Amino acid sequence: MIGKYLTILMVMLTISNCMIVAQPPAEPLSLWYRQPAKQWVEALAVGNGRLGAMVFGGVPQERIQLNEDTLWGGGPYDPANPEALEALQQVREMIFSGQYRQADRLIGRRMMAKPLNQMPYQCLGDLLLKFPDATNGVKDYRRALNLDTAVANVAYTIDGVDYTREIFSSPVDQVIVIRLKANKPGKVTFTAGMKTPQKASVTVESPHTLVMQGVNGSSRGIAGALKFQARVAIRALGGQVVTGDAQITVTDANSVLLLVAAATSYKSYKDVTGDPEALAKDAIAKASAKSFDLLLKDHVAAHQKLFRRVTLDLGTTAAASQPTDERIRNPNKVNDPQLAALYFQFGRYLLISSSRPGCQPANLQGIWNESMNPPWQSKYTININTEMNYWPAEPTNLGECVEPLVSMVMDLTETGARTAKVCYGAGGWVTHHNTDLWRASAPIDGPHWGMWPLGGAWLCLHLWDHYDFTRDKEYLARVYPAMKGAAQFFLDTLVEEPKHKWLVTCPSLSPENSHPYRTSICAGPTMDMQILRDLFANCIRAAEILGVDEDFRKQAAVRRKRLVPNQIGSAGQLQEWLEDWDMRAPEIHHRHVSHLYGLYPSDQIHVRTTPDLVTAARKSLEVRGDDATGWGIGWRLNLWARLHDGEHAYKILTMLLRPERTYPNMFDAHPPFQIDGNFGGTSGIAEMLMQSCAGEIELLPALPKAWPNGSVKGLRARGGFELDVQWKESKLINVTVRSLAGGSCRLRYGAVTRDLNLAKGRSAQWDGIQ
Ligand code: FUC
User: Whose CA is nearest to atom 9 of ligand 1?
Assistant: First the structure.
């Protein structure tokens, strides 16, 4: 393999004043580059769910930008506005009498959160390594991220000495591990220091440890309540180590191991009494007792346990041997199907690295952020973005990674119950379009964005899906009260609209999209109704399975029937609102496609079960257009896959993979960087190859001509099934189905179906399909 690459590629290029020969890594699942990162979106991301690092790979100076997933601004707070309840009735009356803008203004004055915005996710700081000799004569520079081992790697040669750096963030040992090595003795010399925009100090402690400690800042009037600490322990093999005030210099070592630990005092959204110093010291002490080889072995094993569950082969062309940034720069010019497979696996890598059990859920930037006030505060935007982060989790066999999201929902049932009571006088719990580390749940930013009470209800789909993919009843019993509480809020707050006597949410909005009355504020938008149909149905099914709450089931079923049905408008489109406003809306090409929630992620609208609504949804999608933000394209990709239009889905995927929407380090560009597009892309590729919805498992439903031969192994389907699928000359040739839970399923390939009933742990093959 290496030999093949060597013959394909011997690229000469100039960096600074030196000649460099760069070779691709032997592993196809690597991102690689011929030059260090200049910008943050060129640096390579590693993470263990909690500790993140962006590796720049500079030769005279390495910058390793650090994150800890609980380092946010502010402290515990309750933003629910006590004036909201008094205004509620008047707001509803205004909306039902068509005074939408007046309602908007009243909501703005009386119902919004205090403070109006939520807290930002913030950076921890940088670890800087300065290499005094490494300025000239650099050869063979290569920087790579191996998705299969989750190790970033920098290699170069100076004066005949080969230098390497290996960097990974271990989920086992809770440290970031950095090893600096040379292939000749006594050649590793550098000075390590730290810097941060946080309120913090950097000191040196014995033995050879940099310590950065500080407190987080206040934000929007909410006082900072967190302490944090990062420690970098330096262990040199050979050479000398000299400590300065705030830096440590290693001279002439053979190799050096750096262990980075970090923690904050965050214990939960209401408890900030943790001891970051004890946590960081403990992690360093435990990791110090292990060799580098053992740290690496344990890290790789933990990563591969999840990562290796799925393999994807879409074919490989010569383009795959090019550096990753050059491949992204070359969209449509070369046939590069492996780039889509790499993007798919990168999404899985990012989810494993940013959302492990016990950590915070992946936020707008996963866990990677260099700023104190990142775009949209890098929060949890739950009117699409956080949900999209978790779209690939179940189908691409990373169910464990949903656990942080489930825990966050559990917290929200508490904070959201306060908001439900204070702002609506209702039971259950509610969350609006964003939340943060402190699980704030009131409407924020302004009525146009914030007055949307469905955030928690949508998150509950993920709670149900985790059950549906695993059929784990114990888990269902744990999450059912959260689902029920979300439904309870709507049983208490749905109101009858005057025209058809349907039950509607009011006030609400179709996320961030203005209707012809130049506000988004309205009653009963289509998306709300679709989400509530799912929430009520899933609650009813869960209660049946658990044998509980008969009355509640009945109530939910009665209300469900009275929700506004999906409606087809005058242009043949699926109506976004209760009224047929779509073609008169000010932004018909809006990035959000909220009313198409029914087509994806839901299956209320499906090619087999509701063909008329599918035609209408397709019309809506055509009117909206293909181009959008990164996540907007990610959503469209999944939707075209659900329409079983492989060629259109492929076209959308190529739009996602070009430089406007994919940075050199493969991070999604909204722009700016937002990780949801990565996850939407991963999920979309899975949806092109397999869909498990509407009661069937459909194989190759949207296979494009560009991928005539290939295979995918290890995808998960609803009902607790795992599938391997192989195709040749654009035809399915073989499927293996394994049952992890025991039960029956229907497989479909085009018009052909096959019913299977498998005992737990058994598998079946379906081949020679015509
Ligand atoms: C929603 C989107 C924006 C952005 C933000 C984080 O408000 O409409 O495009 O993704 O979330």
Answer: 629
Q: What is the pLDDT of residues 27-64, one digit of tens each?
A: 889 999 999 999 999 999 999 999 999 999 999 999 99
Which residue's CA is minimally distant from atom 6 of ligand 1?
A: 376
Question: What does the alpha-carbon distance between residue 410 and residue 18 come to, in Å, rounded to a whole number?
Answer: 56
- In short, whether 591's Cβ falls inside 6 Å of ligand 1 is yes
**Separation of CA 394 and ligand 1 centre (Å):** 24
Q: Would you place residue 22 in the very low, low, confident or very high pLDDT band (cuts 50, 70, 90)?
A: low
Q: Is the CB of 629 under 6 A from ligand 1?
A: yes
User: 668-674: which pairs have CB atoms within 8 A and are 24 or more residues apart?
Assistant: 668/630, 668/631, 668/634, 669/41, 669/630, 670/375, 670/629, 670/630, 670/631, 671/629, 671/630, 672/375, 673/40, 673/41, 673/365, 673/375, 674/364, 674/365, 674/375, 674/376, 674/385, 674/629, 674/630, 674/631
Q: Is 381 in the pocket of ligand 1 (CB under 6 A)?
A: yes
What mean pLDDT value characterizes the chain? 95
Helices 550-561 and 473-493 meet at what angle, rounded to 10?
A: 50
- In angstroms, the CA 119 to CA 434 distance is 11
Angle at the Cα of 715 (from 711 to 719), degrees rounded to 5?
A: 140
Quick one: what percent of the chain has pLDDT higher than 70? 96
pTM for this prediction: 0.96
* b (16+ CB within 10 A) / e for 69-83: bbbbbbbbbbbbbee
Q: Counting every residue, how long is the chain?
A: 770
Ligand 1 centroid – CA 66 distance (Å)? 25
The shares of helix, strand and coil residues in the chain, as percent rounded to the nearest 5, are: 35, 25, 40
Least confident interval from 77-81, 143-147, 251-255, 334-338: 334-338
Indicate the top mutation candidate among 373, 385, 678 to test ligand 1's pocket, ranked by most ligand atoms within 8 A of CB: 385
Residue 747 CA to ligand 1 center (angstroms) comes to 37
CA–CA gap between residue 422 and residue 442 (Å, rounded): 10
Residue with tokens 């104190």: 372
Distance 4 CA to ligand 1 centre (A): 44
The share of the chain scoring above pLDDT 90, in percent, equals 94
Rounded CA-CA distance 118/115 in Å is: 7
Residues β-bridged to residue 202: 212
Q: 160 C-alpha vs ligand 1 centroid, how far in Å?
A: 50
Contact 372, 120 (CB under 8 A): yes
364 pocket-lining for ligand 1 (C-beta < 6 Å):
yes
Residue 1 has pLDDT above 50, yes or no: no
Which amino acid is it at 388?
A: M
Is the minimum distance from the CB of 636 to ligand 1 under 6 angstroms? Answer: no
